[in-house]
Amino acid sequence: MRQAPMLEGMSTRRSPLAMALLSLVGEAPMHAYRMQQLIKERHKDDVVNVAQRNSVYQTIERLLRDGLIAVLETSREENRPEKTVYELTDEGRETLRQWMRTMLSTPSREFPEFPAALAFLPVLEPEDARAALETRVVAIEARVAALRTELTDGARFLPRIFLVESEYQLAVLKAELEYVRGLVENLRTDEITWDYRM
Q1: pLDDT tens for residues 160-172?
Q2: pTM for the whole structure
Q3: Rounded alpha-carbon distances, angstroms, from residue 65 to 24, 26, 89
Q4: Segment 47-94, tens digit of pLDDT
Q5: CB 63 within 8 A of CB 96
Q6: CA 19 to CA 77: how far, in whole Å?
Q7: Which distant-in-sequence residues (6+ apart) come within 8 Å of 56 by Cβ?
Q8: How far is the C-alpha of 121 from the C-alpha of 128, rounded, in Å?
């Protein structure tokens, strides 16, 4: 394994995508397209955003610049674009382990859209808000059903360790579903209401 030069004062910004890419390159050296493919094949794109291929390449460039991965080889097949294969450096391996310890042990402040929308609910009329929340209930119910199927199917051939993020997502979605159903009911019965002024 190559040791990348230590960059003085360099601290790579942690992100789920950076963590996933380091983890994959830790399994075996690979090129960017293969990393993105594996994330999708393993259904990790439910927890790591790889929708924009450009973000994968930008993150790889950052990991390379910061010495957490290194170029193992570059090749070009006839009529194909150049392919760069990356490997994990010793510093990358230790950084990945530290990120994992932190991500598992320390709740972080995240700013998802839904709580932000709840914080400004009076922007809508109560009936409009209730209708939007009822639509959300349907979407969550569909996602819960899909996750249950995914977990049942996955349990047939995968050890549970490879399903724990789906178990977590299911638990969170079930809690959200219960909350949103209750909020819809509170809006329906006018237990929660407001004077619409916008």
Answers
A1: 999 999 999 999 9
A2: 0.82
A3: 18, 17, 12
A4: 898 888 789 999 999 999 999 999 999 987 777 778 999 999 999 999
A5: no
A6: 29
A7: 17, 21, 32, 35, 36, 50
A8: 10
